[in-house]
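README, section 4: Worked example with a bound small molecule

Sections 1 through 3 covered apo chains. Here we extend the same pipeline to holo records, where the ligand is supplied as SMILES alongside the sequence. The molecule in this example is 2-acetamido-2-deoxy-beta-D-glucopyranose. Nothing else about the input changes; the structure line simply encodes the ligand pose together with the chain.
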Amino acid sequence: MRKWWHGLAAAGALLAALAAALALTVAGLRPATLHTHGQPSSSAADSRRPPLRFGPGGVFKVALFVDLHYGEDAWTDWGPAQDAASDRVMAAVLDAENPDFVVYLGDLVTANNLPIPNASLYWDRAISASRSRGIPWATVFGNHDDMPFEWPPQWFSPDGVPPLRCPALPTSTPDSGCSFRGTPRTDLMAAETVANRQLSYSSSGPRELRPGVSNYVLQVLSRRRTRDDDHDPALLMYFLDSGGGSYTEVVSSAQVKWFQSQSQFLNPNGRIPELIFWHIPSTAYVMVGPKAKSEIRKPCVGSINKEEVAPQAAEWGMMDALAKRPSVKAVFVGHNHGLDWCCPYEELWLCFARHTGYGGYGDWPKGARIIQVTEDPFSAVSWIGMENGSRHSDVTLSS
Ligand SMILES: *[C@@H]1O[C@H](CO)[C@@H](O)[C@H](O)[C@H]1NC(C)=O
Ligand SMILES: *[C@@H]1O[C@H](CO)[C@@H](O)[C@H](O)[C@H]1NC(C)=O
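The generated complex, written as structure tokens:
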């Protein structure tokens, strides 16, 4: 009897240690509400966040919002009008598609155009479309989110600098309120997660991946409830910081190693399908994509192909790591506002989302890429839903 008990205790301790290690980066695997019985625990910041789960029909639907570029030219009428229009795009897509989850795929704000010390205020506006509808979300960083303010050339004309408020910060010297240095990624993430403990599934990721911040994994559990209720993931979503702004536009070798160890640990036999999200296309997109401005031909699927792919600065092995895993079905990026195609690469798909915001360059109609995953039998399909409710570019990512 004693021996049996000791063995169990040792196994329990090992499991607890593993779970603790995992909880650092796997934001979806948490005891959540299961053991609190209505008494919210104050220890873990996000302990009240329920696990993500496939719906009763075995479907999990994700909307991708990218390149919202909130906060441009706030000193004009034009800038705030653009932001109001971006609010309307997200409202229209969410009301038409009713997704289970939203991924904000970077460039939520144009921080290099923000003459305020705190980009979190605009960041918060971007995520409020999901929050006001009670839809959970995750964010990753783009190249514009933590940029310092760049003084526009017109401000040096005879008209000079428009009337600006330069708020005094608590610890500021008299001048620092108007220096607009950009809000660090970690501050943006902290403001988001602290203020949205139930709906934000974003995470600052492991320190060893700095200066990259938005590196984390979310698990979506099966709709089938097992006896212990919580350990049957049917989809893994990996979020990576592809850099830009305060540092180089790149997915680092350290991120590749992190991805390999996470995927090996969470999904050793590749049973669980995996989707990958980051902001800036990798160089593989250049290889598989149609030539800029040419027709999009099968097997690629999409509706706009108006510019060259603007890829990351280097490739340090992420694409090889992904291509080696048949469980990885697709990568989703934004960054290029004039591209919305998906093309196959080895056994997976490389997809652009669709420019969602009225901010940023390009006047192509706005919309959002939708991803719909069915768990049993597994399928993953995607399409683009437009602001006016039309739908196009249907593609099957699971074949
Ligand atoms: C920045 O904005 C966030 C809200 O998005 C707020 O919680 C925080 O206090 C603000 N910080 C400053 C210095 O204004
Ligand atoms: C919706 O917008 C698209 C452009 O994205 C256009 O081609 C289509 O005709 C519009 N549909 C309706 C019903 O207005």
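What to look for in the output: The two ends are 52 Å apart (CA to CA). Residues 55-150+183-396 form a domain with the Purple Acid Phosphatase; chain A, domain 2 fold (CATH 3.60.21.10).

Section 5 describes how to batch many such records.
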